[in-house]
Design goal:
Length: about 425
């Protein structure tokens, strides 16, 4: 039995000759990349929380600068009645329940065999009327059967009238005994695109400086650390507030891709009183963040300084209930926890929010649905400008082509003051 055939042993990749960076990348492409990422994340992570999260989030290789992904939303489960619906008399001796046509704003969320409940239209016994959908008529009507009713003033059984604006909520489907199939689920994930942006930073050092520096290559010297930090700050702003675009530079005669920020990708928005955050308004924010869309029980709030200040000035009773004194560390970042019965928010100050004019705003992110696409992993290339006759210096160019996407837009929420928009 050979060594590679020993049970439980997995043979590594053998590289003939000198082990170079190129050979290592070919044999184990994730090895050097993981090492570089881990070193990058140690450079002032609190200043660039989104970039930090992106390097810890699920990462996918992108085959081109254009990234196509599916933004998975939960299926819409409600619509509203657009005009009053009259009461329908129910004949207890009829073979079938009484029919009713429900005019709705949009019937695309419903299928035949669905059951729906009219929320808020309670009958005399305190229950809400339920209907069984027979078919959709056009785009704005549902043909349905009444399921139950109540006695009116004349002693007749009837399904109650519905007022315009009543909400219809989809419940479970009800199949017949002989049914084998059911209408297919039509709410497919929405296909979206984003562009990977090529981020670059360059530093140079003279030949004399190079000679005095015994570290070789990408060593994270002081100069390189400052350059990487500045590069990450720029990436942070683009990942948050960038606008997706594909441009043609008339001077350089080449195409330039700009990435779209996750601020614009978030599917929902909630407001708070601009003068003061009360316990009630903060609970409304928590309710919006954690309900209705299959959300995680723990999310991250990137907050501008004015929003952090307002959170700190909440009533003492509210702070005792919601704000933990301990600082917790996740993904290499320090957070303050805010608790509620809806879920837990990990709050972190984002100075980039201030720098981009969003000091009073916040962005609630579900880290489970944050994905980073990488077309060109972070790398450093040494340029010999002296040999090319340009300058008596050596240069290091750092490059990454990447973008961030929110795969479940409705799980992420923008938080803004009510009077600022």
């Amino acid at each position: 039995m050979s060594y590679n055939e020993i049970p439980g042993h997995e043979a590594g990749t053998h590289v003939g000759g000198i082990l170079t960076t190129t050979a290592a990348n070919e044999a184990a492409p994730e090895l050097l990349r993981s090492e570089v990422d881990s070193r990058i994340m140690k450079i002032r992570p609190m200043a660039t929380p989104v970039d930090q999260l992106g390097r810890r989030a699920a990462t996918r290789a992108a085959g081109s600068m254009t990234v196509q992904y599916y933004a998975v939303d939960t299926r819409v489960s409600e619509t509203s009645i657009t005009s009053d619906v009259s009461a329908v008399t129910i004949d207890p001796d009829a073979e079938s329940n009484a029919e009713v046509v429900l005019p709705v704003a949009d019937n695309s969320a419903f299928e035949p065999t669905d059951t729906v409940i009219a929320v808020g239209s309670n009958m005399a016994d305190g229950t809400a009327p339920v209907y069984y959908i027979i078919e959709r008529e056009g785009n704005n009507k549902l043909r349905a059967l009444t399921v139950h009713g109540h006695r009116n003033g004349q002693g007749l059984m009837e399904s109650p009238a519905l007022r315009g604006g009543t909400i219809l909520k989809r419940m479970g489907r009800a199949a017949g005994e002989l049914d084998v199939q059911t209408p297919q689920f039509e709410a497919l994930p929405r296909k979206s695109t984003n562009y990977c942006q090529i981020f670059k930073a360059q530093i140079e050092q003279s030949t004399a400086m190079r000679a005095s520096n015994k570290e070789v290559g990408f060593s994270f010297s002081d100069q390189e650390e400052i350059a990487v930090y500045d590069m990450r700050l720029g990436m942070e702003k683009s990942f948050l507030f960038g606008r997706k675009a594909r441009l043609f530079d008339p001077l350089k005669k080449n195409e330039v891709f700009l990435t779209g920020g996750i601020w614009h990708q978030a599917g929902r928005e909630v407001t708070y009183p601009s003068d003061k955050i009360t316990t009630a308004s903060w609970l409304e924010i928590m309710k919006t963040a954690f309900t209705g869309h299959g959300a995680s029980a723990r999310k991250i709030l990137l907050a501008g300084s004015d929003l952090v200040e307002k959170l700190s000035l909440m009533d003492d009773s509210a702070q005792r209930v919601m704000l933990a004194n301990d600082t917790v560390t996740h993904w290499g970042l320090d957070f303050h926890e805010m608790h509620s019965k809806f879920g837990t928010l990990l709050v972190i100050l984002s100075e980039v929010m201030d720098q981009c004019g969003h000091s009073s705003d916040g962005l609630i992110i579900d880290p489970e649905y944050l994905t980073k696409y990488v077309h060109v992993p972070f790398n450093a290339t040494v340029l010999d400008l002296r040999s090319s006759g340009q300058r008596n210096t050596d240069a290091v160019v750092m490059t990454e082509a990447s973008c961030l996407v929110l795969r479940h837009p409705e799980a992420h929420v923008r938080v803004i003051p009510a009077k600022s928009r």
